[in-house]
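To fix ideas, we quote verbatim one protein's residues and fold tokens.
>
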Amino acid sequence: MQKIELYIEGQRVELFKDESITITQSIQNVKDIEKVFTAFTQSFSIPASKTNNKIFQHYYNFDINGFDARKKVSATIELNSIPFQTGK
């Protein structure tokens, strides 16, 4: 079984232990080099733990100074402690 870890702006997000996260990569169109590899994942939930609440503080209201879901932030996915994917 793969161990998946999620980091948002360098802070590790706690995940549910019993929830599975599926990551699928596929080859789309070999003729168009920009669209050769695409990544897809199902949505998943994270617990409202003390650590996650510090990262996503005031997620429900962007008027309060805290996490603004409208803005992209850097994130990293690690599989078995090895960097797998980085993005926004």
